[in-house]
Structure formats: C-alpha cells, structure tokens
Amino acid sequence: MSAAFVAAWFLPPLAPMLLVLAGTALLSSRPRTGRAMIVGGAGIVLVLSIPWVGGSLLRSLEPPFADPLAKSADAIVILGGGSHPASAEYGDDTVNSTTLERLRYGARLYRLTHLPVLVTGGNPRGYAEAEAALMRLVLETEWNIPVRWSDDQSHDTAENARNSFAILKPAGITRIYLVTHAWHMPRAMIAFERAGFTVVPAPTGYAVKRNRPPEDFVPSADGFVLSAHFCHEVLGAIWYRLKRHWITGSS
Q1: For helices 185-195 and 221-248, what crossing angle results, to 10°?
Q2: How far, in Å, CA of 80 to CA of 99, rounded?
Q3: What gap in Å lies between CA 233 and CA 187, rounded to an integer?
Q4: Cβ contact 160:154 at 8 Å
Q5: In terms of C-beta density within 10 A (0-12 exposed, 13-18 middle, 19 or more buried), how is residue 231 classed?
Q6: What's the rounded Cα separation, in Å, for the pair 135 and 140?
Q7: Rg, Å, the chain Cα set
Q8: Tens digits of residue pLDDT in 83-132
Q9: Beta bridge partners of 222
C-alpha cells in the first residue's frame, strides 16, 4: 500500500466526502449530527474550491523570494513533481507541468552557474518510466543541459533527500541549490537538511497574488488544486514531525 494511497484518505476531496457519507448514514439515527456532518463536508469542499482561498493558503507556506545566486553552492538538485503517462503527442511518458516548471528554473540556474546537476524522482505510480529518467531526457535532449547524477528510486521528498545525499556525499558535495516549488520548499528543506545537506533554496512557481478579480471568489477546479497542494504540504509536514518523534523520541 503506497503512502499516496494512505494520504488520500486524509486529504480533499476524499476526506470531506467521507464526512458527507458518514453524515448521510447518520441521518436516520442522529439527524442533527448527520446534517451537521453533511453541511460541514460540503462546506469544506466549497470553500477550498475558491481560488482566492487556495492562493492565500499556498502563499502562507511560501518563503519570501531571495536570489539563490547571492549564495554559493556546489551542485543543483532538481526535485521531480510528477509525470504524464502515455502522452499521445510524445508517444510515451513525459514530465508533467509541475516537473517542467522546476526543470525550467533548474536550467536557468545551470546556465548562470554551470554547476553539475542532479535530478531526483522515482516511479511511485508504476508508470513506464521513472521521473528522473524523464527529467534527464528533457534537460539533455531538449535544452542541451548535462545531467551528472540521477536518482530514480525515490518515492517521496524524504527519499529524494536521503538518496541525493548518498549520491553527492562521496563526491564531496553537501552544499546545494535546491529547486522545487515555493510552496513545497519548507518541507523539502527540512528533509534535505536532515539528510545532511546545507541548502540554498531556489524556489520557483510562486502562487500569483492578483488584485482579487471577481472570478477569484467563484469556486473552480483551479482553486481546488491550489488548496489541495496546501493540504498535502501540511499533512506531509505533520507526518515528518511524527516520524521523527517516533524514531528519535524528540519533539
């Protein structure tokens, strides 16, 4: 059973929908409680679908942008963010939009620094290709950027960090530019610093802060995606903290 499958039960949309279903089951025996659960579950989904809510939640996770090149590092590590299986136009698996955004910023850093690049991303969903292989393909064949190291065994951010450290430490590299989305950076930094790295954050894909047009307050799929990213990051941070407490006994 994968971690993603377990996490899905605690994240929207499944978690609030389970609340609605439980409320429906209670309507005959405990109608007031049942109605409250139905309204609560549906209300959670509705609120999380508002783009302004989702954007505000994500921005609360994002560190202020600081030019990573103001500090030195010895390598660039780019985290995978998912892949698109059996793409019709490419004839095979390819990177998804999240991974592509990270690769684009990693490519920019490479062109400015010419530091060696490591890509990391496994195959947690069992597609034909691991994310790291697809990331390497894009960087080398489409953008002519060499990839020195590749980790295709990681299934989550903690494994990204541990496997990357196992690859880079023998090369004498422990100070890195870490490329991932701004909303993912706090959790990624915790994982990579615990693995032994000194991290210079290189975030990309900041949530756009707009002048609140009317459509930002209308529920939509885009708004729900933003909120889902936030919930996933919060749950991931809680899980990392619990794992550390169980393993080390520390708070």
Answers
A1: 30
A2: 5
A3: 7
A4: yes
A5: middle
A6: 9
A7: 20
A8: 888 788 888 888 999 999 999 999 999 999 999 999 999 987 777 789 99
A9: none
Q: Can you name the residues that pair with 101 across neighbouring β-strands?
A: none
Q: Which residue has the tokens 């708004």?
A: 223
Q: What is the 3-state secondary structure (H, E, C) of the chain?
A: CCHHHHHHCCCCCHHHHHHHHHHHHHCCCCHHHHHHHHHHHHHHHHHHCCHHHHHHHHHHHCCCCCCHHHCCCCEEEEECCCEEEEECCCCEEEECHHHHHHHHHHHHHHHHHCCCEEEECCCCCCCCCCHHHHHHHHHHHHCCCCCCEEECCCCCHHHHHHHHHHHHHHHCCCEEEEEEECCCHHHHHHHHHHHCCEEEEEEECCCCCCCCCHHHHCCCHHHHHHHHHHHHHHHHHHHHHHHHHHHHCCC
- Maximum distance among all Cα pairs of the chain, rounded to whole angstroms: 67
Give the pair of three-digit tokens for residue 217. Answer: 């307050």
- Between CA 151 and CA 164 the distance in angstroms is 7
Report how far apart the first and last C-alpha atoms of the chain are (Å, whole number). 28
State the Cα–Cα distance between residues 202 and 237, nearest whole angstrom: 19
Buried b / exposed e over 20-57, threshold 16 CB at 10 Å, is beebeebeeeeeeebeebbeebeebbeebbbbbbbbbb
In tens, the pLDDT along 196-235 reads 999 999 999 998 766 678 888 999 988 888 898 889 888 8
